[in-house]
Amino acid sequence: MTALAPAPVRRAASAHRLSFAHLLRSEAIKVLTLRSTWWSLGVTAAMSVGISLLIAVATSGMGGGMAPTNVILAPTQFTMLVAGILGAIVVTGEYSTGMIRSTLTAEPRRGAVLLAKACVVALTMAATTVVTYAVAIVITAPFTSTGIDWATPADSIVPLALGVVSMASFALLGVGFGFLIRSGAGAIAATVGVLFVLPIILSLFSIAGPDWMWVLESAKYLPVNAAAELTSPGTENLLEPALTMAGWVVGPLLLGWVALRSRDA
Known about the structure:
By secondary structure, this protein is mostly helical.
């Protein structure tokens, strides 16, 4: 007598799908529960406030001193590296632990995963920068001859707001390299190379002949120089540096999206 095989159990398709809001919440939990995130944010805040205070104290006896807005924004050339590295390790950490497989199983739409992580990293860095700027403004106020002229947005609100956007952009640059390279060391090296090493290399051409001046002039299209121009008080032409910064954000993120879609986790 032949035993009958049990009929296969058919499960009804679930009507529930992971919404983008839930995906954002999931990414926020992953990012904000990492010790490396808080260490990076803490280092960024400490460097920004500390360097601003040192500059304010050092220049307080030099006539009128440095403009208060410049005092707050000056540490960006240092803190940008921490922002970019944070964006890189947030992504590559998932690959090193294998958590990326669980993430893509829960949400197969890989573009949505990249977008959610980018949003969380950018908002986290932006919020940290806003708080850091506020603290730095209060601490450095006694050492500046004049306070920030809030009545002139071009010399106060605009450069500070673009400073926040620049820090978020540096973090997104790291996110893009993280998805593209997947290796923590490789993504950090690429981020530091673009933000720090490449500007130094191009600046060496200042001692070259006129035939090489085009290399030196191309440095303005690097993200750090674009950010410096965006955050300079009183800058009138913001379109070109804004497009440059946008290109450095969108380019790596698009390449990271292509890599995420075309390669197995």
